[in-house]
Design goal:
heterodimer; A: 299 residues; mainly alpha; ABC transporter involved in vitamin B12 uptake, BtuC; two-stranded antiparallel ribbon; 11 helices; B: 370 residues; 14 helices; globular
């Protein structure tokens, strides 16, 4: 019982990471129908931005909550700017081409960030400063670190925040309109370019939160850290039903639970394959995902 | 082309390849090709096979797959395993050894056939479920299958698992590599100008219309996918038995698939000529950049990614578009009948009827709440 509870807690902590990143994927896909492959790499840049900011503020020696918040905010700002820049320079010029052209561009941007990161930051892993001292809470025989608890809480807060923005604010309404039909939204006087830029800024800022939070729990960061995590987070978004915000959360949690469960069995070496296996199953059985709505093709 | 002329042409190609192979291995007079250049030449041949075969499914059929390295891995490991376990016996049947001559040739043919069959089987297993999907979903699922194949190979101790297959025997040479490359070009070209190719082109341009005129779209797509996978398997079999260094699952990851895609994107998706040019250019380019790459690790991939983005923004049709090289470039009559799509022209694009937008994945769900 204790180990089961512990496994669930570990799975949810891992799943919350995927969920945080999946939220960004789902938003961009929702608005542009583009798999933003580079999203996982923006998450990596978020972690590196946090690393440099925290070291500049010397937070390793003097850990503080306030400092952590400042680092997170700084990293969010940097990533939001990078996200907008990527959209402006790479995605906007290909928006009117086929979706495949956009997809290949996204793969290109992703590679550029990964290997550009290797050139700029160096290929060797860095170790993120401990901005918050690690503490372990025990509860009913199961344990959770304060960092993991933070990740779960932050991802929940972010999810509800996003849900609020998309459904209850004016810009959210504009985002939904753009998602529904870009050209009609334009006719209704919505500045769709600005809405899309905002979507990228928001999504990238969320990726930065993810990067800093994950680096707190797992301090080893390197320029390729966003590749696998990003792909799995995308799977989480598809699993939950792409475009659906609570769906991304559920998808992320499910992937996290499954990976943790498989990691505890004799098949632990297949861990990296489980997300893709799930993706293939879901796309064949229920292509719209758990929370998504099915679409029929009309001529 | 008359049958006699075909036989004559084939014989000429074989003799030329054998002569080239002899010249590279033994030198001509005082001239001996630098092993480094010989290595690049070999890689060019293998990459041509990979790019042209991927072009069949991505370019002609228009089904965007990014898991080509997975099929290469299946073929490579199978071929290497066959040579290691049975190669000496096969060569012995002809009274030879793996060192050269008819014995090595027999081992090569058997192992490559085995690799092709295994990769084709993997193509069936991956293709049937995946090809129900389209566009970006198909891309991500083929990527997923590629990763699954890699993880599975990592877990097979008989072929070395994560440490790599150190037993693999290097029996490949220029003759086999370019024979396969030429065969691949001929196969894909013939498919493109056949009924099969026309069906694929129709599916690429409008799948619903293709179905409406009675084309069994699933059957053709899976068939193209399987042929493409089998050819990638042969390329894998060649590259797996080329060097003395071990086959490693790491050689067949996502980045390898992307490299092959960059080749066909730069050449022009859908053009066989483009795939050949792209494969050649992108094999030579990283070697030319090797000095920089050692100074700044990762720079090679940075150049690749910038090329990819640049081409997508400024020339999405690649260098060749869907044009093919042929004697018609020099005023001869054009005998190849590869169908060129109507969608190639802006005019055709402007007249394509607008279909209702797919609402799948609409932000916040498609049912509005206010």
């Amino acid at each position: 019982m204790d180990t089961l509870l512990q496994q669930i807690i570990n799975g949810l902590s891992l799943g919350a990471i995927y969920a945080l990143i999946a939220l960004g994927y789902t938003m961009v896909y929702g608005v542009l129908r583009l798999i933003n492959f580079a999203h996982g790499d923006v998450y990596m840049i978020g972690a590196f931005a946090g690393y440099y900011l925290a070291n500049a503020m010397n937070l390793d020696a003097n850990p503080s909550i306030l400092g952590t918040i400042a680092v997170t905010m700084g990293s969010m700002a940097i990533c939001a700017a990078i996200g907008v820049l990527i959209e402006r320079l790479a995605y906007r010029p290909v928006r009117h081409h086929s979706r495949l052209t956009a997809l290949i561009t996204a793969i290109g941007v992703s590679l550029l960030l990964e290997y550009g990161g290797q050139v700029v930051f160096g290929a060797a892993p860095r170790f993120f400063p401990q901005m918050i001292r690690s503490e372990i809470y025990s509860w009913g025989g199961a344990q959770i670190t304060n960092q993991n608890l933070l990740i779960i809480v932050v991802s929940l807060v972010v999810m509800f925040g996003l849900q609020f923005i998309v459904h209850r604010t004016k810009i959210g309404k504009a985002m939904r309109a753009t998602s529904y039909n870009l050209n009609v939204a334009k006719l209704m006087g919505i500045n769709t370019d600005r809405v899309i830029a905002f979507t990228f800024a928001l999504g990238s800022a969320l990726a930065a939160v993810g990067g800093v939070m994950v680096a707190l729990a797992i301090p080893r960061i390197d320029p390729l850290m966003g590749l696998m995590t990003g792909l799995k987070a995308f799977v989480a978004a598809v699993l939950g039903g792409i475009g659906n915000i609570p769906g991304a959360m559920i998808g992320g949690m499910l992937i996290g639970l499954m990976e943790t469960w498989l990691g505890a069995t004799a098949y632990s070496t297949y861990r990296d394959a489980v997300a893709f296996g799930v993706l293939i199953l879901i796309l064949i059985i229920r292509p719209a995902g758990i929370m998504g709505t099915a679409a029929t093709e009309k001529v | 082309m008359s049958p006699a002329r075909k036989v004559l042409n084939s014989a000429a190609v074989l003799v030329l390849l054998a002569a080239a192979n002899y010249a590279i291995e033994h030198g001509v007079g005082d001239f001996q090709l630098n092993p480094y250049y010989a290595r690049i030449l070999n890689l060019i041949g293998i990459n041509i096979t990979l790019a042209v075969s991927l072009n069949l499914i991505n370019g002609l059929a228009g089904q965007f797959s990014i898991g080509h390295a997975g099929f290469m891995a299946v073929g490579g490991y199978t071929a290497a395993y066959i040579t290691v376990s049975a190669g000496a016996r096969i060569a012995g049947l002809l009274g030879g050894t793996l060192a050269g001559g008819p014995g090595a040739a027999a081992a090569m043919i058997v192992s490559l056939t085995g690799g092709a069959l295994a990769a084709a089987l993997a193509g069936v297993v991956v293709g049937i479920p995946s090809l129900r999907l389209k566009g970006d979903y198909l891309a991500i699922v083929t990527l997923g299958f590629g990763e699954i194949i890699r993880v599975v190979i990592l877990n097979i101790p008989a072929v070395g698992g994560a440490t790599g297959y150190t037993d693999a025997i290097p029996i490949t040479n220029v003759f086999w590599i370019f024979l396969v490359a030429i065969l691949t070009i001929v196969i894909v070209r013939n498919i493109a100008s056949s009924t099969f190719g026309r069906a694929l082109a129709t599916i690429r341009d409008d799948e619903i219309a293709a179905e409406a005129v009675g084309i069994n779209t699933t059957r053709y797509k899976v068939l193209a996918f399987v042929v493409s996978a089998a050819l990638a398997g042969v390329a894998g079999g060649l590259s797996g038995q080329l060097f003395a260094n071990p086959l490693s699952p790491q050689n067949f990851n996502f980045v390898k698939s992307i490299e092959i895609i960059v080749m066909i994107v730069i050449g022009g998706i859908g053009s066989i000529t483009g795939a050949v040019v792209g494969a050649t250019a992108l094999t030579i380019l990283p070697e030319a950049l090797r000095g920089f790459d050692q100074q700044f690790p990762g720079l090679r991939m940075v150049v690749y990614s910038l090329l990819l983005i640049g081409f997508m923004i400024f020339r999405p049709q690649g260098l060749f578009g869907r044009r093919e090289f042929g004697l018609h470039w020099f005023g001869w009559p054009n005998r190849t009948k590869i169908p060129v799509a109507l969608t190639d022209t802006a005019d055709a694009r402007a007249h394509t009827p607008q279909r209702p937008v797919d609402r799948r994945g609409t932000l916040g769900g498609s049912d509005t709440d206010d």
